[in-house]
Design goal:
Helices cover 60% and strands 7% of the residues. It is mainly alpha-helical and 142 residues long.
C-alpha cells in the first residue's frame, strides 16, 4: 500500500538530488515522483467531479448557484464566499484516497439533500444549514 499521500492543494514538492524518489521513513516504501504525480492527478480528477458534477449528481457549483438564487441580494456576496470556502474544504478532503479521506460520498449526498431541501422549503434557514454543515466538516477535519 502506498503510505505517502499528498494533500491536494498543499502538495509539498521536495526536490532530492536525483529527483526520482522520496521516502516517508526508512520503514515505509520508497515512492517515485511519478507515483506522487499520479496520486495528485487522481485527486484533481475527483475534485473536479465534486465541483462540476458527475453522471447523475449535481456538482458543488450547481448547488451553490441554486442556493444563491434564493439568497437576498444584499447577502449574496458573503454567502457565495462561504459556499466557495465550504466547497473547497469538502472537495479537497473527499477527493483524497478512500483509505485516508474523512469525508465520504454518503456525507456529501446528505449535505446536498439538506441544502436543496432548505432552498425548496425553508430558504430563510440556509444560513443555519450552512453553519451546521461547516461545523460538521470542521469537526471531521480536526
Amino acid at each position: 500500500m502506498l503510505k505517502f499521500f499528498c494533500a491536494f492543494w498543499g502538495v509539498l514538492f521536495v526536490q532530492l538530488s536525483g529527483g526520482v524518489s522520496c521516502s516517508w521513513s526508512s520503514e515505509d516504501e520508497v515512492v517515485s515522483s511519478s507515483e506522487i504525480s499520479e496520486q495528485v492527478m487522481e485527486e484533481q480528477r475527483w475534485y473536479n467531479r465534486f465541483q462540476q458534477g458527475y453522471l447523475m449528481f449535481d456538482g458543488w457549483q450547481e448547488i451553490e448557484k441554486t442556493v444563491l438564487t434564493v439568497t437576498p441580494v444584499e447577502e449574496r456576496e458573503a454567502r457565495q464566499a462561504r459556499l466557495n470556502e465550504l466547497g473547497k474544504k469538502i472537495g479537497k478532503e473527499w477527493s483524497r484516497d478512500n483509505e485516508v479521506r474523512r469525508i465520504d460520498t454518503a456525507m456529501i449526498k446528505n449535505w446536498g439533500k439538506i441544502l436543496k431541501n432548505a432552498v425548496e422549503s425553508e430558504p430563510e434557514k440556509i444560513k443555519e444549514v450552512l453553519a451546521q454543515i461547516s461545523s460538521e466538516v470542521d469537526s471531521l477535519l480536526r
